[in-house]
Amino acid sequence: MSLDMEVISFISEEEGKFLLKLARKSIEYYLTYRSILPIDERDIPFDNLKRKGASFVTIETKYGNLRGCIGSIIPYRPLYEDVVHNAVSAAVSDPRFPPLTLEELPNVKIKVSVLTYPKPLIYKDWKDLLEKLKPFEDGVIIKYKNHSATFLPDVWEEIPEKELFLSHLCLKAGLPPDFWKTGLLEVYTYKTIRFSE
């Protein structure tokens, strides 16, 4: 298996710091030149970051309020590339917020979460689903027909109750809040390795 076909499974502290700098540089470059930061694979000092990886980039105000968050669930491009594109999207393409400005950039905090590959969560009924979920550990993806949504593990900090967590996730997917009780949802879980400025 060649390097570019391998999926990332571990990120060191040093690699995480590099990704945070890369995310900030990508946003600054885009806000200045309105184009994606041109980056050569040879400029990436860690081979690990050239493996396929999925990431979420989160932007917060200095008061800890969300200012943008965009990511990939399934790894399909080198991790460093994924972070570059998701950083720019979180800054200017999150439909919940106006685009970030260059003036705001020094006052925001950037977080990068690297995701493990999602695994199906097999459950018998809604009680079993609640039983199997691990708050503060699991990122959760739900799917039903053409509806889908995910919450990163960080969301447990805001919504620690499992029932509420699933209800909010259903609403995010455009489903009724108690749809998780129907047994019709496909559920997948993943873990994240988080880095923060």
TrEMBL record:
AMMECR1 domain ranges (all copies): 14-197
Transmembrane segments: none
Pfam families: AMMECR1 (PF01871)
UniProt-listed Gene3D superfamilies: Hypothetical protein ph0010, domain 1, Hypothetical protein ph0010, domain 2
InterPro entries (alphabetical): AMMECR1, AMMECR1_dom_sf, AMMECR1_domain, AMMECR1_N, AmmeMemoSam_A
Source superkingdom: Bacteria
Matches recorded under PROSITE patterns: AMMECR1
PANTHER family in UniProt: AMME SYNDROME CANDIDATE GENE 1 PROTEIN, AMMECR1 HOMOLOG
Name of the protein described by the UniProt record: AMMECR1 domain-containing protein
